[in-house]
Design brief:
Radius of gyration: 19 Å
Oligomer: single chain
Strand content: under 5%
Number of helices: 5
Order of helices and strands: HHHHH
Shape: globular
Helix content: 55-70%
Number of strands: 0
Structural class: mainly alpha
Largest sheet: none
Length: about 150
Amino acid sequence: MTSAPRADDAHPYLRASTAGIRHHARTLDRSVPPKPVDRLHLDVLHAHLTALHQLLDQLTEAARPPYPGTGRHLAAAHTRLWQATAEVHAAFHLLPSATPNSTECRPEQLPEGPPVLTICQRHLTAGHAVRRKTTPTDLHHPPHTTACVR
């Protein structure tokens, strides 16, 4: 008979990711003067958000059949997380780039060559997955959910 893992042992990679984000936030909080945000920072944050979005999508699909109420809440969180991801992508393009007079992704102009997956490629790939499961109305006005206690 196998016992369920303890909360401290469950999902070690998610726990490490959370610890990394907390550490990074504390480091930013302590920097004097505050470090300005740059495109690289937003690119890494966007990568994290899209990975979290994909995980939330998988959890939503797993929760829907046996627990429809949970699935609805996770679906609403999924939509809101996509909205946050889209705003980070938009913010990325508002920051100055290494190439003057450009707000577009131009991976061919990077000195080290194009990265495997630029923020725009990542965003388009994630956007296709979102549009397969979400209506434009849901994206602009996510469903309202209320927490209910059993």
